[in-house]
Known about the structure:
Belongs to the MEIOB family. The chain has 410 residues and is α+β, with helices and mostly antiparallel strands.
Amino acid sequence: MSTGVRKLAIGALSPDVNNSLVIGVIIAKQGLRTFISKKDGEERGVWNFTLRDSPVDTINVTFWGSAEGASRTSEIFNIGDVGTVSEFRILSEIYGYLAINRPSLQLSPFQLQLQENSCSIAMYDGEDANGIRRLMSIPTKPPGDFLRLSDVLSYGQALKGDFVNLLVAVRNVGYVRAVKSRKDSRDISCRDILVMDQSHLEFQITLWTNEVIKRASYWRPQRTVIFFADVRLEYSEFRQSVVAVITSRTVITENPSTIEAQSLREYAENVPLQPIAVLDHLSQSVSEPFAINTLMTTAQITEKAWSSNDNSDNRFTALLYAVITSLDIDGCAENSISYKCSVCSQFLEGSDKCLNAGCLISTKGQFTLSTPIYDLKVNLTDHRGTLFNCRILSPVADEILNCPVFIVPL
């Protein structure tokens, strides 16, 4: 540390402070922006990021310099790096930049401005670096300040354009794809992910910044939980549903250390996602038949199913008196028999290996011992109509047919 330079916490900064140094972890990073200087016609660059040095203190930082210098610096420092900055100017947060385009956190009322030729910015590897880095697991908003996905979807287009917080588990990470920028037609990258929570199993979030797109490659389906602070909601005509978009205001906390996140992680690790697995899970969790007292006809079941919100995961149980009017046990065996992992009971779909990340067989990379079960499609008919493509699984199907599944080896 240079003579006369003193370390200050973000919360202790003020405009009259000189010769100070700040140490913090980068919790958000925006893409590099370039422009032509009106003063000398040279290409210039500006890069914005956010530092944090305590659970409650964060500050936005702006780096100005040549296009090459700003690009080089932005490539060196990434989200999760602990760094030091010194020889900066302390300005009001709203000075020279619209606050709406910056992370909206428990912010310092100031921002730091760095000039390429006069500032100092470097990696920090002191003894307390790991402790500072652990701040990455603390959400930047109160732990309970988020909307459930079912609430987001129920509001529909009423929330279009709003910024909200979400606590979700990753369900699927899509491929990186290139699209044309609306502003200047240049190629930019984006990536769609599907997330879920206890209220809804499928919601799309689009990632636009290169830093987040890269980090998403390490997110594990049904294992990674994320707190998204300030994602923007939009309405997708293609999906006919509300979706979320990452913007320059968004701050992402991976696997936050909160009770709410731990509860969601346990749910995500055990919830079935394949259609047949969902049905099996539901059949195991519903009440015993004698405890169900809602009697419905096929017409009432159809009406209730169609009247439910398409974006909800509402499930219901009912008693139905009907006859089986279609039972194709003479059809293709591939359509009437499915397979479960013998260790964890996860359904296997077109693979010799169990895809359940928590299965002992899966973690060892071994071929799965599978158990065949009935998976029969039937039609159920009463005096009001017919329910098509219903499914009967083992062990109920075994009892109806009075015959267990038996596969003759070839």
